[in-house]
Write a structure and sequence with these properties.
It is built from 21 helices and 19 strands. It is α/β, with parallel strands linked by helices. The protein is globular, with a radius of gyration of 22 Å. It starts with a strand and ends with a helix. GO terms for molecular function: cobalamin binding; ethanolamine ammonia-lyase activity.
Length: about 475
């Protein structure tokens, strides 16, 4: 196997952190593999993926990848508190991670190496409560590091232990539950088309996570119209769910000031300050939006109001990756998310394209990593199981990933009519897919939403009934007719 070592090589310190970074090495088969710093070590230890090759940071051979994993496995977790992958003084996400580290509970795992942390997480003696108790002590880089040592089954076995519960008008994330975002996108934001898709999803038991529309434009008036449409449908049938039009956070802020029916505030986020700048945001703006949305007090069972989306490769696509591998950067985005106690977080895992995740195998691995790392850090993780039409993936890959994530205890998935998003032009999962995974794994909707389905006669013994509830149809036909104008 060879000798595996890590050592500090002549470092200086600034702001309490290493600025001249360590060197790591592992000897395999008579060859010494050297990794100049933690950033290089993490990148080389990552499973192969096209984005890291595009960035020039991935391992150059399978042997180098194995060597990096040996070196990483022997690295003490405490080393991550002395070294950062992006300088503290140059990146507000790094400052967020360092300044908010829960040092008081780190003692529970401070004696472990990364490899030892993996064994601790997998131990039958460690359950979800024990993992949740130290979530604040786990930095994103620690989570990313341990995930790189895990097989797919390890990622599933640990993630399914962890229960992350959030609330707004219903309760999301309970064990044995699987929620669905009803995504009724339309290429022209046509209210009639959107209303028809909403009705379609409700009739198949989707929508308990959120009824969430990606608008074709970021126009405030259009966004307000769509929010009012969802709110009318929700109120007319007393549906215990929440709405969101996934406009830019600045648009949502404007609509809060206008008095529009804003339930959740959405924003795409990244794992670096420069990546977030590419989205037109910073942490201060997110805090302002979170506070403004919470001030509306529209929740009934809770006030988790933020909805974040992420995706491996977003920093690289903005040239904001600092030569850090895409999975570590993705996990750093989760540090941004957890600072705002969100209702929902999901990785839109295959959306950016094959330049970052080439095929179904790479998408599946990324989906399990993202879900595992998010839950390890205490987030209510969902996954948009998706791919673009130029990726080496198909519906069978989606079925496989959906099943794996269902076993892993994913909090929510996406429901799109026919699994084909005609506005964003990508392939996701359908309302029927959600019915499949709930059926085969015995998962149920959020409890408040499930009770509503039963009350209107749409659910029978936990299953969607064969007949359509006349009351629901009667209530919504006028809405559809009115939407057509």
């Amino acid at each position: 196997m060879g000798l595996v070592k890590w050592r500090i090589a002549g470092s200086t310190r600034e702001n309490g952190l290493e600025t001249h970074l360590p060197r790591y090495h592992a000897d395999l088969g008579g060859t010494r593999h050297v990794f100049d710093d933690l950033r290089a070590l993490l990148a080389a230890a990552s499973p192969a993926r096209s984005g890291d090759m595009l960035a020039g940071v991935g391992a150059q051979s399978a042997e180098e990848r194995v060597a990096a994993r040996f070196a990483l496995a022997d690295l003490p977790l405490a080393a991550f508190l002395n070294e950062v992958v992006i300088p503290y003084e140059k990146d507000e996400v790094t400052r967020l991670i360092v300044d908010n580290h829960a040092a008081s509970v780190f003692s529970a795992i401070s004696h472990l190496t990364v490899g030892g942390f993996r064994e601790w997480l997998l131990s039958n003696a460690v359950g979800g409560a024990e993992i949740a108790a130290i979530a604040g002590a786990i930095t994103p880089e620690m989570a990313a590091a341990v995930s790189k040592l895990m097989r797919n089954q390890d990622l599933i076995a640990v993630a399914r232990k962890i229960e992350v519960i959030t609330r707004f008008r219903n309760t999301i994330g309970l064990t044995g539950r699987l929620s669905v975002r009803l995504q009724p996108n339309h290429p022209t934001d046509d209210p009639a088309g959107i209303a028809a898709s909403i009705l379609d999803g409700l009739l198949m038991g989707s929508g308990d996570a959120v009824i969430g529309i990606n608008p074709a434009t970021d126009d405030a008036d259009t966004t307000a119209t769509l929010l009012e449409l969802i709110d009318e449908i929700r109120l007319s049938c007393a549906i215990p769910t929440q709405s969101c039009v996934l406009a830019h956070v600045t648009t949502t802020l404007e609509l809060v000031r206008r008095g529009a029916p804003v339930d959740l505030c959405f924003q795409s986020i990244a794992g670096t300050q420069a990546g977030n700048r590419g989205f037109g945001i910073d942490l201060a703006l997110l805090r302002e939006a979170c506070d403004a949305t919470q001030s509306l007090q529209r929740g009934t069972v809770g006030q988790n109001v933020m909805y974040f989306e992420t995706g491996q490769g977003s920093c690289l696509s903005a040239n904001a990756h600092h030569e850090v591998d895409q999975q570590t950067l993705e996990t750093r985005a989760y540090a941004v998310a957890r600072a705002f106690d969100p209702l929902l977080v999901n990785s839109v895992v295959g959306f950016i394209g094959p330049e970052y995740l080439f095929d179904g195998k790479q998408i599946a691995r990324a989906a399990l990593e993202d879900h595992f790392c998010g839950k390890l850090l205490g987030l209510p993780m969902g996954v948009d199981i998706c791919y673009t039409n130029h990726a080496e993936a198909d519906g069978d890959d989606s079925d496989t990933i959906l099943t794996l994530l269902g076993v892993a205890g994913v909090s929510f998935i996406i429901g799109v009519p026919g699994a084909d998003d005609i506005m964003l032009n990508y392939q996701s999962t359908s309302f029927h897919d959600a019915l499949y995974i709930r059926e085969v794994l015995g998962r149920r909707p959020a409890p408040e939403f499930e009770a509503w389905l039963e009350n209107i006669g749409l659910s029978d013994q936990g299953r969607i009934a064969d007949h359509l509830p006349p009351a629901l149809i009667a209530d919504h036909i006028p809405l559809l007719r009115d939407a057509r104008g």
